[in-house]
Amino acid sequence: MRPNNNNKPAEKKQCYFCSNKISTADYKDTATLRRFMSPHAKILNHNRTGTCPKHQRMVSAALKRARHMALLPFVAA
């Protein structure tokens, strides 16, 4: 974590799923899944998104499933 200007440590991001009490990452919910993708349609890591390891695994599996169902792109041109 990079400290901010006040020489205080930066606060750690909260897991989106834990904070909103969402138990599963649904592959059909593309609006939520797009939060965890880069503009080039790559899956973002947990350092960028702040998700916990349990939910990061669910997100990556749901993104891959949505790609195969043609709901999300494999690459963005």
Provide an overview of this structure:
With 77 residues, the protein is mostly helical. It has a domain of 45 residues: Ribosomal protein S18 (30s Ribosomal Protein S18). 36% of the residues lie in helices and 0% in strands. It has 4 helices and no strands. 14% of the residues are buried. The model has no long low-confidence stretch (mean pLDDT 90).
CATH topology group of the domain at 24-68: 30s Ribosomal Protein S18
Q: Under the CATH scheme, which class of the domain at 24-68?
A: Few Secondary Structures
Question: What is the end-to-end distance?
Answer: 31 Å
The largest pleated sheet is described as:
none
What are the secondary-structure elements, in order, as H or E?
A: HHHH
